[in-house]
Design a protein that fits this description.
Strand content: under 5%
Order of helices and strands: HHHHHHH
Distance between the termini: 19 Å
Shape: globular
Structural class: mainly alpha
Oligomer: single chain
Largest sheet: none
Number of domains: 1
Length: about 200
């Protein structure tokens, strides 16, 4: 069994699923009143789908393309965090910037040496940067997992019949967005671990 190749495809499925859920949440709020969380949904969808594409197609496309894509996402997140309307979402937007910067870093490492097989299995980048990012995303995954455990019950939770699509997808503090954040944190940690 080729462990890293299996891990690569599982991570691609995880991040694509997370990006798809964020797209559904974004689409669901399109006609609604302006919502400050739409930017987070858009960024999380772009990160999830971009990450899945990089995992699946990383060795078929030039690394510079991924660096530019994730560099733009990082710059957009930093701009949103510095903006006047950031308010209480500043830390969340900075987290998006760190995630996008980490993906750009992985793309640089991927472009620096030939890969042994498709996906994110690649030679080690800079150990200090990789170590710092591992600590950050490991702590983030633990923190978001603990928040998932403490999400209060919602009327649209899976135990309530017929309301999954309305309440859970539409509630920014509900269990689904927390689960997506946990999945992306674990995915980033795993990708950095095989870097």
């Amino acid at each position: 069994m080729d462990g890293p190749a299996v891990l690569s495809w599982l991570l691609a499925l995880l991040t694509a699923g997370t990006g798809g859920i964020c797209l559904l949440r974004l689409r669901r709020t399109t006609g609604a009143a302006p919502d400050r969380g739409r930017g987070s949904d858009a960024m999380e969808a772009a990160m999830g789908l971009g990450t899945a594409a990089m995992i699946a197609l990383g060795d078929r496309l030039p690394a510079a393309l991924w660096v530019v894509l994730f560099g733009l996402l990082c710059a957009g997140s930093l701009g949103a965090a510095a903006g006047r309307g950031a308010g209480g979402r500043r830390a969340h937007r900075l987290h998006h910037a760190v995630g996008a910067a980490a993906m750009a870093y992985m793309a640089l490492a991927m472009g620096g040496a030939p890969q042994q097989h498709a996906g994110m299995a690649m030679p080690m980048g800079r150990p200090a940067v990789t170590g710092l990012l591992l600590v950050y995303f490991g702590c983030y995954a633990l923190w978001s997992g603990s928040r998932l455990l403490t999400v209060p019950g919602h009327p649209g939770s899976p135990g309530a019949p017929g309301t999954l699509g309305t309440s859970v997808l539409g509630d920014r503090g509900g269990p689904l967005p927390q689960a997506c954040r946990l999945a992306m944190g674990v995915g980033m940690f795993a990708m950095l671990l095989v870097l």
